[in-house]
Amino acid sequence: MSSKDGPQTWKVTAVVTFYMSAALVMVFVNKAVMISSPELPLLFLLIQLSLAVILLHGAAVLTTKVEIPKLELKTAKKLAPVTIVNVVGLVFNLLCLRGVDASFFQIARGLQLPLTIIVSSLHGRSLPSKLVIGASAIVTTGFFIGLAPNAISADRAHEAPSYLSIIYGILSSLFIAIHAVLIKFSLPHAQNSTIQLAYWQNLGSALLLAPFILFQGELSKLAELRSTSLWNAEVFLWGSVVTGVFGFLLCVAGLLSIKITSPVTHMFSSAARSAIQTLLGVWLFNDLFTANRAISILLIATGTMFYTWVKSIEGAPASARPPPDLAKDDVEARGAIRMDQIDEEVHDWQDEKRQTA
């Protein structure tokens, strides 16, 4: 028995470490690029999405486990809702990260779990249990504590997040919640393959995003930045490549996390990642850190882990029922938790990809 447990424990440890590392790299590299080039959020996101598509093609050449879907108009139309929700959520997620500290990012998007529960309950026309409502209340309390005013020195008062950035965070959480519901109904149109669905979403999101880059004038802004010596083009270029590659790896890590680890294990690793993310944000970017923010992060992580535990207990009698292929929001993204039912856990590799974005 022990000989079998050893490799399994090693697998879980490896996957969790890989997932946490990829997510942390995504958050901080994205933040570094947004600090360096705040005028180019859509172009930055387009490069990430395009790289994901290219890497999926490369992976398909190396292994038969990655299958590129046949591009058909009727399939694209059926997947249009989940693709639109995905790209809108990614944009709001990136705009939120641009306007807040990396350590505050998870607070700004702290309503993701409560909104997912609400959207799922409305869609399923069912009421969540009292314990689920309690978990949601804990997370919601943590969110508002994080927004509450705190004693900040006058020289750092300008670092407080703007209301607009917080609104972006709430909208990102809402679209991740909607995405979690839509993705279950979109899978059959992608032959029940998470890889094929990821390909459709990345390709479709890139195509939808391209015209808005022109409308927003980001190409002309890029030309202006290139003409000035103050802009560090290397940060933008390398940041785009790194986040594109790690976004792809994060997708793979999310799928491995779903397959190998349990929802509870995943949530504990997410909580640990939140703590590490906060500490690194303070260290690398000198992020503002207050007592309110510390309590907020603690409550959001506690409420989320409690929710995951509750759902694992509530789902125990139905364990004989085989789980769906897709066990994510975000995603950053951009979005990695098992979903035995629509309203159970949030599948969010895209979210991480933005947390990540």
Compact summary:
With 357 residues, this protein is an all-alpha fold.
Describe this structure in words.
The chain has 357 residues and is mostly helical. Helices cover 71% and strands 0% of the residues. The chain contains 14 helices and no strands. It has helices at residues 2-36, 41-62, 73-78, 80-99, 105-108, 112-124, 130-147, 163-186, 194-215, 218-226, 233-260, 263-285, 291-314, 349-355. The longest helix has 35 residues, at 2-36. It is globular, with a radius of gyration of 20 Å. The termini are far apart.
Give a quick set of tags describing it.
357 residues, mainly alpha, globular
Tell me the number of strands.
Answer: 0
Catalogue the unreliable spans: 1-7, 318-352
Structural class: mainly alpha
Distance between the termini: 42 Å
Mean pLDDT: 78
Strand content: under 5%
- Which percent bin holds the helix content? over 70%
Order of helices and strands: HHHHHHHHHHHHHH
* Shape descriptor: globular
Characterize the biggest β-sheet. none
Radius of gyration over all CA atoms, rounded? 20 Å
> Number of helical runs?
14
Q: What's the quaternary structure here?
A: single chain
Secondary structure topology:
Layout: H1 2-36, H2 41-62, H3 73-78, H4 80-99, H5 105-108, H6 112-124, H7 130-147, H8 163-186, H9 194-215, H10 218-226, H11 233-260, H12 263-285, H13 291-314, H14 349-355
